[in-house]
Amino acid sequence: MSSLSQAPSKAQGNVDLLNQATKIAISASAPRPGGRGPQVNSSTINNLIAFLQSRRDVNVLLLLIMRQMGRGEIDNNTGKLLLESLKNLDVDRALTLLGYVKWAFETLTARNITVNRNLLGKDPSFMDLVKAIS
């Protein structure tokens, strides 16, 4: 198989990861009840990345996510999105996804970027996020 025939599927794979990361980041960055910061702390996302880089085992990462959900570090909606998105990925794709989540989360929680969350809809894509910012 030539690299030309593989390119579209790899590109589509990245779009799929960007879309999944966008949904996770939107959930994680949603304001907590009472308006005190986002649902998930940015350090929690960084810890997931560092954990996977160290352990190199997606299944153990899934266990950590469930533990963090139980401790209230990750809200249920974000946790379910993470579990669903990560459960069938290899380590490298999982790290790519979490990196995208981190970047989208940082965008959504940045003080100097205005995001019109009304444009994101019920099933937002990465391009919906781009439109909500531009």
Q: Can you tell me about this structure?
A:
The N terminus is likely disordered. The chain is globular. It has one domain. The protein is an all-alpha fold.
What brief labels describe this structure?
134 residues, mainly alpha, 6 helices, disordered N terminus
Short description:
This protein has 134 residues and is mainly alpha-helical. Helices cover 69% and strands 0% of the residues. The longest helix is centred in the N-terminal third of the chain and has 27 residues, at 3-29.
Beta-strand percentage? under 5%
First and last CA, distance? 39 Å
Structure summary, number of beta strands:
0
The value of Rg in angstroms is: 15 Å
Overall average residue pLDDT: 93
Order of helices and strands: HHHHHH
Uncertain residue ranges = 1-6
Largest sheet: none
Helicity level: 55-70%
Classify the secondary structure makeup into a structural class: mainly alpha
- How many domains make up the 3D coordinates? 1
Shape: globular
Helix tally equals 6
Give the topology.
Elements: H1 3-29, H2 42-55, H3 58-70, H4 76-86, H5 91-109, H6 126-133
Helix pairs in contact: 1-4, 1-5, 2-3, 2-5, 3-4
